[in-house]
Specification:
heterodimer, A: 272 residues, mainly alpha, MetI-like fold, 10 helices, B: Rossmann fold, 6-stranded mixed beta sheet, 4-stranded antiparallel beta sheet, 8 helices
Chain lengths: 272, 268
């Protein structure tokens, strides 16, 4: 008999099996919601799908009074703006520092300890400092995301570059490369797929920092909305919002993977 | 003729561990020096000295009569057993890399006519190692033998004074290894190269080399084995009929001896 560990599946079977637990989860929710509503028809903790659909219709048609945009659109744009700028700053910082520290032992000796110290500070603990220094506007939220993930990415990229085979560095030098050429032609291109990988891993924490900062002080944004309607036990809004956030996260991850496969085929098992 | 490379009383020490001691030798232009020795006898240190990756703790290395700086440079090419080619570049770009570094110090990339010229040179070099049909292939898609061919092309495009080979064929299948032997012999003769090759395979050393250097420890202190370094125990100029001395064979403990038919170098 085929051993369990040797069972390989086709694409269709894999999709079907992967959907099973999700469908089961939804079914369990349906049953639980039904049961609670039998008990108490005005239950708010596990809203029915009809109630959620109604809520979705609400926040996809009603307009936010301050921006005059549809609520979901306003929230999504505000959040993605903060997330995007924060990630961009973190990525650029990590790229430059990671390359510098990885290629040059001298730079690693000078800046390495500082990066290590910053990396162990819990970012949310410095959120009050950011609010005090940068005010309650966008800057502090963006800064939290950037400060939260840049040190991790920097350390990851540094160690990646530092562990590139020494043979490559020697070979490049025998081919006449100077430090600059070695950095941009040998280290940098090999760093890029790893940078995207680190960015994908950082997306989770980045969302955490975004929601946290929006929950504390904001007037628009996905995290703001969730924490606002929490006061009214509006689970029918919170649950679709959470689903929407995870959908955005999955889309961002798929996009990054696509960019990496397209841009750096050699890093994904040969294929041109 | 003055020697291409000269070593004067070289010592290599790491702390109180002595790796090489009292190595003095000269390497003539156009020679093919094969370096053999048991593991830990300083073969690789010897290679790193010539490469400039490492500085001797005592003594002098002279290249073309001038003291050599302990830094890698384009006058010494190298092919390692692994990681010799850049995985993110196609075969063609791997070979063009050396030309681009010399001609474009800041961008490290060429454009227009310069690029076409570099491409042409690189294609010619790839053809010389038999890779003219694999220009746009990434190293990960190549076999081990093809990768080593590429590594040789990549090094030769800089016209190095010395080509260093660090067990270049050690990871290859026996059949492929014979092809590579023919290739390196042909390149060595056609282009008048000077080659220093470190190998574990004594048969390979006696087949390819015009001279075989054996490294080993002359003295041995059982209580402090690290206090004596290795040095050249054999320095054999070869002609076709030289067979490895029995003592060297015993010291290396290698089974596959060169067969007389292997000693016939096809291009010699």
């Amino acid at each position: 008999m085929t051993r369990l560990v040797d069972i390989r599946l086709g694409r269709g079977a894999r999709l079907l099996l992967g959907a099973l637990p999700i469908v089961a989860l939804l079914f369990v929710y349906l049953l639980a919601s039904e049961a609670r509503h039998l008990d108490n028809p005005s239950d708010k903790v596990l809203p029915t799908f009809e109630a959620m659909a109604q809520a979705i219709r609400g926040f996809t048609t009603d307009r936010d009074p301050s921006t005059d945009r549809i609520i979901l659109v306003a929230d999504t744009l505000a959040s993605l703006y903060r997330l995007g700028i924060g990630l961009a700053i973190a990525t650029a910082t990590a790229l430059v520092l990671g390359l510098l520290l990885g290629v040059m032992p001298l730079a690693r000796a000078i800046l390495g300890p500082m990066v290590a110290v910053i990396a162990v500070i819990p970012p949310v603990a410095v959120l009050p400092i950011l609010f005090i220094v940068l005010g309650l506007d966008e800057a502090s939220k963006i800064a939290l995301i950037a400060i939260g993930i840049a040190p991790f990415m920097t350390r990851d990229l540094t160690s990646f570059v530092a562990t590139l085979p020494v043979e490559q560095s020697v070979k490049a030098q025998t081919l006449g490369a100077n430090s600059w050429q070695l950095s941009i032609r040998v280290a940098l291109p090999q760093l890029m797929p790893r940078l995207i990988e680190a960015l994908r891993l950082s997306m989770g924490p980045a969302w955490v920092f975004l929601i946290a900062s929006e929950a504390v002080a904001s007037d628009v944004g996905l995290g703001y909305r969730i924490f606002l309607v929490r006061r009214y036990f509006a689970m029918d809004i919170i649950l679709p919002y959470v689903a929407w956030i995870s959908l955005l996260a999955i889309a961002a991850d798929a996009l990054l993977l696509f960019v990496s496969r397209r841009g750096f085929p050699w890093a994904h098992g040969a294929g041109r | 003729m003055s020697p291409l490379l000269e070593m004067r009383n070289i010592w290599v020490e790491y702390g109180d561990k002595i790796v090489l001691e009292r190595v003095s030798l000269e390497i003539a232009e156009r020679s093919f020096v094969a370096v053999v020795g048991p593991s830990g006898a300083g073969k690789s240190s010897f290679l790193r000295l010539i490469l400039g990756q490492e500085a001797p703790s005592r003594g002098q290395v002279l290249l073309d009569g001038r003291t050599m700086r302990a830094e890698c440079g384009p006058d010494r090419g190298v092919v390692f057993q692994r990681y010799s080619v850049f995985p993110h570049l196609t075969a063609l770009r791997n070979v063009m890399f050396g030309i681009e570094c010399a001609q474009a110090p800041f961008a490290a990339r060429l454009f227009g006519a310069q690029r076409r010229a570099a491409r042409e040179t690189a294609v010619g070099m790839l053809a010389a190692v038999g890779l003219e049909h694999s220009l746009d292939v990434y190293p990960a898609q190549m076999s081990g033998g093809m990768q080593q061919r590429l590594a040789i092309a990549q090094a030769l495009v800089k016209h190095p004074r010395i080509l260093l080979l660090d067990e270049p064929f050690g990871a290859l299948d026996p059949g492929i290894r014979l092809d590579m032997h023919a290739l390196i012999t042909r390149l060595w003769q056609e282009r008048g190269l000077t080659i220093v090759m470190v190998t574990h395979d004594i048969g390979e050393a006696f087949k390819l080399g015009t001279r075989v250097l054996a490294f080993d420890k002359r003295r041995h202190d059982p209580h402090a084995p690290h206090r004596f370094g290795a040095t050249t125990t054999y320095d054999l100029p070869l002609d076709r009929k030289t067979l490895p001395p029995q003592a060297l064979v015993d010291a290396l403990g290698v089974g596959d001896l060169p067969r007389p038919d292997l000693l016939r170098r096809p291009f010699a």
